[in-house]
Design a protein that fits this description.
CATH architecture of one domain: 3-Layer(bba) Sandwich
Number of strands: 23
Shape: globular
CATH class of one domain: Alpha Beta
Helix content: 25-40%
Distance between the termini: 28 Å
Structural class: alpha+beta
Strand content: 15-25%
CATH superfamily of one domain: FAD/NAD(P)-binding domain
CATH topology of one domain: FAD/NAD(P)-binding domain
């Protein structure tokens, strides 16, 4: 167990992980497997783990057919689905193995459906190309044009329950998870926190919404900044509102969002969403909660710049997403995917989430894949967005592979 240095009031460890989300805890566990005698500390600024994306995501375990073959997301989603499914089975964590239908809303989306089928085959994903009638046999209320895709390995879990189990495992493995400890700055390989100074031979940054700022303290993330997007879900209030499976539209493959869809939760509830509304500060969950004036200035300035010039259609995206604060607009989008959708039955908003989406400040485009940067002293996970929850186990192994390479070079 790492001990504070009483003379200097410095807490030391072999590895320090900043952020106790699903990526941070899984990286810590993987480090412990490979460096069994190492002292590992995970610091978390909140008083509980998974207070942000890891506990606020949809809970869907994705299959991996959205992503191009050469992407990290393609490989890690496929492998992560299998790994996390096995983890839930081992821990007896409830799962809803309801699958997913991807539907074409009109003839023009059939080409997108075929592209997803092609990607699925390239990525080795079990995926069925089915007729409209076959889609209705899976879910009688579904609406699709001529064809649909069915993903049988897509399922739903409770992110909070999964995270509770991962935390128990990490602590049982003698990983020291310190809650309420906030990163304040860095000098050499010492980091300042609200609970004193910490020092480690190696530091891993998995701070989500603040990963880019921490990375800049270490000389990384020079061409990147986090652009936060708010995700809202609207729940069916009537317990009789049932669907047999998740229903998704063909997404715009030029941006990383999947569009408004139906999710069937682990306990069978139906929700529609999420939105991808540009947020004004990083933790802009609700009202003026966690209000941050300096962040507003920087983020709004960035967003205004993207209105003028962007490598993607930010202007249209922003206008369309802001409309989704309206229940009428959100249920209208949902009614394109299934029959008998009534606004009066969708009145309960779920807990908002914020997507820590990385923006490349040189190309002015949203980054589509996972991005990490590091050296022989630190590693920074900069773009661990959806489907990072699904990918967390193999992605964490990949990050630790990179850390091992860096450490071998420094000791070479």
């Amino acid at each position: 167990m790492p001990q504070p240095n009483q003379n200097l009031n410095i807490t030391t460890a072999d590895f320090i992980v900043i952020g106790a989300g699903v990526i941070g805890l899984n990286i810590a566990r993987e480090l412990k497997r490979r460096f069994t005698d190492s002292h590992i500390i995970v610091i978390e600024k909140e008083n509980e783990v998974a207070e942000h994306a890891s506990g606020r995501n949809s809970g869907v375990l994705h299959a991996g057919f959205y992503y191009t073959k050469d992407s990290l997301k393609a490989k890690f989603t496929r492998d992560g689905n299998k790994a996390l499914t096995e983890y839930c089975e081992e821990k007896k964590i409830a799962m809803n193995r309801c699958g997913k239908l991807v539907v074409a809303r009109h003839e023009g989306e059939l080409s997108g459906l075929n592209e997803l089928l092609h990607r699925g085959k390239q990525n080795g994903i079990e995926l069925q190309f089915i007729s409209e009638q076959e889609a209705r046999e899976i879910e009688p209320r579904v609406k699709t044009f001529a064809h649909a895709l069915f993903s049988p390995t897509t399922s739903s879990v409770s992110p909070k329950v999964v995270m509770e189990n991962i935390l128990v495992d990490a602590e049982r493995e003698k990983i020291n998870v310190l809650k309420g400890v906030k990163y304040l700055g860095r000098k050499y390989n010492k980091i300042r926190t609200n609970n004193g100074i910490f020092e480690a031979a190696y530091i891993i940054n998995t701070a989500g919404l603040y990963a880019d700022l921490i990375a800049k303290d270490f000389g990384f993330s020079k061409n990147y900044t986090i652009l936060p997007f708010k995700g809202l879900y609207l729940y069916a209030s009537n317990s009789n509102e049932k669907l047999n499976t998740n229903i998704y539209p063909v997404p715009n493959l030029h941006n990383p969002f999947l569009g408004v869809h139906f999710t069937v939760t682990v306990d069978g509830k139906v929700k529609i969403g999420p939105t991808a509304i540009p947020a004004f500060w990083r933790e802009h969950y609700q009202g003026f909660s966690r209000f941050n004036l300096s962040e507003i200035y920087k983020i709004v300035l960035c967003e205004l710049g993207l209105f003028v010039k962007a490598g993607f259609d930010f202007r249209n995206l922003a206008f369309e997403e802001i409309k989704k604060y309206s229940r009428s607009v959100l249920t209208k989008h949902a009614s394109e995917l299934a029959t008998h959708i009534h606004k009066s039955n969708y009145v309960t908003w779920g807990k908002p989430g914020i997507r820590a989406q990385l923006l490349n400040t040189q190309t002015r485009k949203l980054e589509m894949d996972f991005i990490i940067e590091g050296d022989n002293k630190s590693m920074h996970v900069l773009n661990a967005v959806s489907p990072a929850f699904t990918c967390s186990i193999p992605f964490s192994r990949y990050v630790v592979d990179k850390i091992e390479v860096q450490l071998s070079r420094s000791h070479g």
